[in-house]
Write a structure and sequence with these properties.
Layout (H helix, E strand, L loop, with lengths): L2 H13 L4 H15 L5 H11 L6 H15 L1 H13 L5 H14 L5 H18 L4 H12 L9 H10 L3 H7 L1 H22 L9 H26 L5 H19 L5 H34 L2 H12 L3 H18 L2 H18 L4 H15 L7 H10 L3 H8 L3 H13 L1 H12 L1
Helix pairs in contact: 1-2, 2-14, 3-14, 4-13, 4-14, 5-6, 5-12, 6-7, 6-8, 6-11, 7-8, 7-19, 8-19, 8-20, 9-17, 9-18, 10-22, 11-21, 12-13, 14-17, 15-17, 16-17, 16-18, 17-18, 18-21, 19-20, 21-22
Length: 425
């Protein structure tokens, strides 16, 4: 079986509704079997693919995010964001973005942001008289900040697949994440002027101080994660464990909103999510091994260079490829499949692997806002109780600032690489 037939089989299986992990494993097994190799090589590579210390961070970051949603920490974050930026025109739209920035430093998952904060944000905006479309659109767009600002599950997976420093990837995501927030707030301001959206509330120092005191302990979570990694206290994996225990301490001891039943339920949800992610990683490992063994990255690079040798145009082509694939494939699966193929090409063009990781993840986050996959849109469709098609049209205008930031980061790498260079190089 040729590589083209293997990829075609993968696409057919995915279109037929076969789970991504199963589709990857079956297409890889078909290639191995038809090329006279022992089938056990598939299992061996799958086991080796998840036998990685950095991957231990995955369940702990997921658990930390679930604990925050369950223990009511998201409400405190929302109240603090409201007291901080609610005084601006279109106040709750800015609150929406601000709350996502804070929550991003705790969970690292766009779907967790949309499902946790989204319910609170959309309800508050509707009650304040905002259009449902505007509320859904800005909630969807702001949730994509989560996997850019550290901690980030997609960046952990990329770091493992691309053998890239996860600590540098985490630090590199800070400025791009803040740029995304600023661009979305500018969009909110533009909408607010056109539609005459009100200020949510006047700025009051007393209210700001009160909500800050209530939120100060949750706000310490990003400091524990990023500060600990940056100061060399622990690795990103150990940071995930520290964040989980800290969130558990807040829920069980400080706020007393978590009990044993909650812990069991949250743990089971985490196990289910982690299992699905690691199955994809394991299955994609053998798929990536086959691609590497057949020098697909080299052939792909030669094909691109056959089109043009202009670095800017090649970078645009690669970005477009990731963007299109992100519309049809789940984020983790896309990272595990694309990294072995595209990263060598990017490095050959002189692109730093850390910079390329940020570009890839941001591309795939935009894919979460586009049909037909669009996981964030499906989540918000349920949360907001609006049709999926309406979520698509509501989110479309907010793709403009996100794509603008993507292009800026793609062609001005100094923005992404300034902090990693300062702290690590």
């Amino acid at each position: 079986m040729s590589i083209i037939l293997m990829i075609a089989l993968l696409l057919v299986l995915m279109v037929a509704g076969v789970p991504v992990a199963a589709a990857l494993a079956l297409s890889s097994l078909a290639w191995v079997a038809t090329n006279g190799m022992p089938p056990m090589i598939v299992l061996a590579n799958m086991v080796n693919g998840i036998n990685s210390f950095p991957l231990i961070a995955v369940p702990f970051f997921i658990l930390a995010g679930n604990l925050m949603n369950t223990s009511g920490i998201t409400t405190k974050i929302f109240d603090f964001a409201r007291a901080s930026v609610g005084w601006m025109h279109g106040g709750l739209g800015h609150v929406n973005v601000g709350a996502s920035v804070v929550f991003a430093g705790m969970s690292g998952a766009a779907v967790a942001d949309a499902g946790g904060l989204g319910a609170i944000e959309i309800k508050a905006m509707r009650e304040a008289g905002y259009d449902s479309d505007f509320a859904v659109g800005i909630t969807a767009a702001s949730s994509t900040i989560g996997p850019i600002i550290p901690p980030s599950l997609p960046l952990v997976i990329y770091g493992v697949m691309g053998n890239t420093s996860i600590g540098q990837l985490f630090v590199a995501g800070l400025i791009p994440g803040l740029l995304m927030a600023v661009s979305l707030m500018l969009m909110v301001g533009w909408f607010s002027v056109r539609r005459n959206y009100p200020r949510d509330l006047r700025f009051e120092l007393a209210r700001f101080g009160r909500t800050f005191v209530h939120a100060i302990l949750p706000l310490m979570t990003p400091i524990i994660i990023i500060g600990g990694i940056g100061w060399g206290i622990y690795t990103p994996t150990e940071a995930a464990i520290a964040a989980t225990f800290y969130c558990m301490f807040l829920g069980m001891v400080v706020y007393r909103t978590l009990d044993f039943k909650h812990i069991i339920r949250v743990t089971m949800d985490t196990v289910e999510t982690t299992a699905s992610i690691l199955l994809i990683v394991a299955a994609s490992t053998i798929f990536a091994w086959i691609l590497t063994a057949n020098q697909v990255a080299l052939h792909f690079s030669d094909a691109l260079l056959g089109i043009t040798d202009d670095k800017t145009l090649l970078l645009l082509i690669i970005t477009l490829i990731i963007l299109v694939i992100g519309c049809f494939m789940e984020t983790i699966a896309a990272i595990t499949i694309l990294t072995p193929v595209l990263l060598p090409v990017a490095v050959g063009l002189g692109i730093d692997p850390v910079h390329f990781g940020i570009i890839m993840v941001l591309n795939l986050m935009i894919g979460l806002l586009t049909p037909p996959v669009g996981l964030v849109l499906y989540v918000l469709s349920k949360v907001a109780k609006v049709p999926f098609e309406r979520c698509v049209t509501a989110t479309a205008p907010f793709l403009i600032p996100l794509i603008a930031v993507l292009l800026l980061l793609t062609f001005v790498p100094e923005i992404t690489m300034w902090l990693p260079t300062l702290l690590y190089r």
